[in-house]
Amino acid sequence: MSAQIIDGKAFAARVREQVAEHVARLNRDHGLKPGLAVVLVGEDPASQVYVRSKGKQTVEVGMNSYEHKLDADTSEADLLALIDRLNNDPAVNGILVQLPLPKHLNEDLVINSIDPAKDVDGFHISNVGLLGTGQKSMVPCTPLGCLMMLRDHLGSLSGLDAVVIGRSNIVGKPMSQLLLGDSCTVTIAHSRTKDLPDVVRRADIVVAAVGRPQMVPGDWIKPGATVIDVGINRIDKPDGGTRLVGDVDYDSCAAVAGAITPVPGGVGPMTIACLLANTLTATCRANGLEEPQ
Ligand code: NDP
């Protein structure tokens, strides 16, 4: 195995430490304490785990965490009324509505009802537009975490060939915008892409955000390429039980790549760290203070 392992867990711990230091300064110099409100509708087990983990890490960096757990049959009007209250609450600097929402709720409508300045997930149409036009925005947490790891590992990304596999609004599309913003030559692949192996073989940077366990084998990877695995898939182990794997076949890709993120311990921890960083940024912007770098 030759690839360098990009340790997202350690990187995320450093990001959280920097956020905590900045929060302590905000508190000391300006009497501010950032607040993050997380709204969970229903009882999806994976979402419950994420929300618990977000709440715990929010408090650990010195912010206030406000959790709103609503019944699965909550009406759209009640959810919108809660978001309206949070939009107008000065103690709340960031609002995150945990996705997916139950089927009877219109996800686009709900997300677009969040004040864009408090939209720390970066999914509001205004933030999507700002990112797409290269303006200051709230950047979606998972792609932001991927970009930070890429910059940390590679330095300048300018001129590199990047292939993003997946075109979802939460990962693939914003990831492509960020890579374009860093002057990569970007290809977005998806389920209709022809000759996907050949497309991926051209890439200096491969970001896999597909949701298919171990789909990308090592022989699709250009030797020395940097591989960022966004996928989180639970598969059965031969001896019973389950384990988490990514969208790339880790062992065969690590044998060829220059660097690779593991699953777990790669992109996942960076996502929550970036959520906290975004909440800090939102707090600074709301108070006219200098933003963290
Ligand atoms: P979506 O299901 O929304 O999107 C998947 C994308 O993959 C689609 O664009 C789809 O193409 C494409 N795709 C599906 N099959 C193929 C194929 N055979 N070849 C090429 N492309 C294909 O998923 P998400 O973007 O929400 O998530 C992707 C993965 O990332 C999941 O495993 C998810 O769990 C994980 N994830 C991890 C996070 C983290 O914090 N680490 C955060 C968010 C997601 P098409 O559009 O044509 O259907």
Automatic annotation (TrEMBL):
The record lists NADP(+) as bound by G166, R167, S168, I232
Q: Does the keyword Transmembrane helix apply?
A: no
Ranges for domain Tetrahydrofolate dehydrogenase/cyclohydrolase NAD(P)-binding: 140-285
* Recorded metabolic or biological pathway in which this protein acts: One-carbon metabolism; tetrahydrofolate interconversion
The family database entries (Gene3D superfamilies) matched by this protein are listed as: Leucine Dehydrogenase, chain A, domain 1, NAD(P)-binding Rossmann-like Domain
The signal peptide annotation in the UniProt record is none
In this protein, which residues make up the domain named Tetrahydrofolate dehydrogenase/cyclohydrolase catalytic?
6-121
The protein's Enzyme Commission number: 1.5.1.5, 3.5.4.9
UniProt KW keywords: Amino-acid biosynthesis, Histidine biosynthesis, Hydrolase, Methionine biosynthesis, Multifunctional enzyme, NADP, One-carbon metabolism, Oxidoreductase, Purine biosynthesis
Q: What would be an example GO MF term here?
A: methenyltetrahydrofolate cyclohydrolase activity
InterPro entries in the cross-refs: Aminoacid_DH-like_N_sf, NAD(P)-bd_dom_sf, THF_DH/CycHdrlase, THF_DH/CycHdrlase_cat_dom, THF_DH/CycHdrlase_CS, THF_DH/CycHdrlase_NAD-bd_dom
Highest taxon listed in the record's lineage: Bacteria
Q: Which Pfam families match?
A: THF_DHG_CYH, THF_DHG_CYH_C
Q: Does the keyword NADP apply?
A: yes
SUPFAM superfamilies assigned: Aminoacid dehydrogenase-like, N-terminal domain (SSF53223), NAD(P)-binding Rossmann-fold domains (SSF51735)
Reaction equations catalysed? (6R)-5,10-methylene-5,6,7,8-tetrahydrofolate + NADP(+) = (6R)-5,10-methenyltetrahydrofolate + NADPH; (6R)-5,10-methenyltetrahydrofolate + H2O = (6R)-10-formyltetrahydrofolate + H(+)
The UniProt subunit note reads as follows:
Homodimer.
Family membership: Belongs to the tetrahydrofolate dehydrogenase/cyclohydrolase family.
**What PANTHER family does its record include?**
C-1-TETRAHYDROFOLATE SYNTHASE, CYTOPLASMIC, C-1-TETRAHYDROFOLATE SYNTHASE, CYTOPLASMIC-RELATED
* Function according to Swiss-Prot or TrEMBL: Catalyzes the oxidation of 5,10-methylenetetrahydrofolate to 5,10-methenyltetrahydrofolate and then the hydrolysis of 5,10-methenyltetrahydrofolate to 10-formyltetrahydrofolate.
Instruction: Provide the protein name.
Output: Bifunctional protein FolD
Instruction: Tell me which species this is from.
Output: Sedimentitalea xiamensis
